[in-house]
Amino acid sequence: MPNQSPSGPSRRRFLRQTTFTAISIALSACASPVAFASSDPIPPPHQGLASLHNTPIPPLTAPIRPQLLPDVPLAVKIGQMLLLGFRGAVIDDSSVIAKNIRDQHLGSVVLFGANVRSPKQLKQMTGDLQSLAQLPLLISVDQEGGQVARLTERLGFTSMPSAAQLGRSNTPEETRDQSAAMAQVLADVGITLNLAPVVDVAVNPRNPIIARLERSFSADPEVVATQAGAFIDGHHDRGVKCTLKHFPGHGSSLGDTHQGFVNVSDTWSVAELIPYLRLIGQGKADAVMTAHIFDSALDPDLPATLSPSVVTGLLREKLGYDGVVVSDDMQMRAITDLFPLDEAFELAILAGVDVISVSKEVTYAGSVADQFIGTVHRMLEGGTITEERIDQSFRRIMRLKGLASL
């Protein structure tokens, strides 16, 4: 665990309270907007607490209370909380992922390059996946544009500019058009959720996983918010949902959470929340993906994905977001170097994450779905959570799927 471990619960409560108080002051302050040029040095920790302009906290959205079907079993609700990657480009009855969907009610899948051969093959595969599902699947992909694209020109798909290219142009109409073209490609092959746009602010131009790969629209959080809004609009024009990532902000980091523990305690700024604040307030946040970054001021114990202070306290209570929260891949080393998979599942659920994302359906320990379902049942049997907590996530997921009447 990080060196910043607290001495006890009282310190944790104090740090959470002082952090949320500071954030509340920042989000209601009246001053000039914070903007960072790519040539600027990395700002001091939590810069901007007294220098954000008029950014009132949006009200909480109406409670999610769709009428649940009386015969929706608990097993279905639990299965809907898992998103899995899988091997192969063809689905048959012997595929592990087929069992996960058919027998364990898996709610979502994510596609990687190894799953894709051509537009025709991909459309066939997504149709086969949907045919196995009792409830419609969320079929997702990381199709950001630029260097991060699973559907590539080499495989017969249209290439798209990176977020940084669109941000430099900073023409929302162009971004919306490019995004709509991208979303049409996704819709044509049966993909329903894009794990994009990245709304990380390019605070650190040396960031190895965000800025250097041109995944951020800008070093200015207002430009990020505007460009991401246009990107989402283009996807919505074609019926594809989007995912804001990586909350609460990965743009100031010096490291890559794929490779191990990443501490942003000395670099993170409250200005990195501005894109979320704007887009949540505009009703454009279909889903939000958490980051595995660690910030001792936000939570002195846990990385963001596993932190109730970050997911429930900051994202839901402070920023007013009541939609689906999806974790980044739980097999990234920022998690696996510190936590067994079942413990990470438990902590993420307790933090308030609705959909747990895992890039491989099988690990050395066996079926990921079996591990996840077993963990949730142990939590229920031990009284760590109640079925009402599962219902909260199920309702949000159904709303994201357009099935809020269930």
Plain-language structure description:
The protein has 406 residues and is an alpha/beta fold. The protein has one domain: Glycoside hydrolase, family 3, N-terminal domain (TIM Barrel), CATH 3.20.20.300. It contains 13 helices and 12 strands. The strands form 3 sheets. It has an 8-stranded parallel beta sheet. A two-stranded antiparallel ribbon has the order 4-5. Strands 11-12 form a two-stranded antiparallel sheet. Helix 8 links the parallel strand 7 and strand 8. Helix 11 crosses helix 12. The longest helix has 20 residues. The N terminus is likely disordered.
Output the CATH homologous superfamily.
Answer: Glycoside hydrolase, family 3, N-terminal domain
Q: Helix coverage percent of residues?
A: 25-40%
User: What's the CATH first level?
Assistant: Alpha Beta
* Discrete helix count: 13
Could you tell me the radius of gyration in angstroms?
A: 20 Å
Query: In total, how many beta strands?
Result: 12
Main sheet summary: 8 strands, parallel
- Give the integer mean of the pLDDT values: 87
N-to-C CA distance = 41 Å
* CATH T-level topology: TIM Barrel
CATH architecture: Alpha-Beta Barrel
Number of domains: 1
State the strand order across the main sheet.
Answer: 9-8-7-6-3-2-1-10
Low-pLDDT segments: 1-20, 28-43, 47-66
Q: Tell me the β content.
A: 5-15%
Structural class, judged by helices and strands? alpha/beta
Could you give the order of the helices and strands?
HHEHEHEEEHHEHEHEHEHHEEEHH
Question: Which outline best applies?
Answer: globular
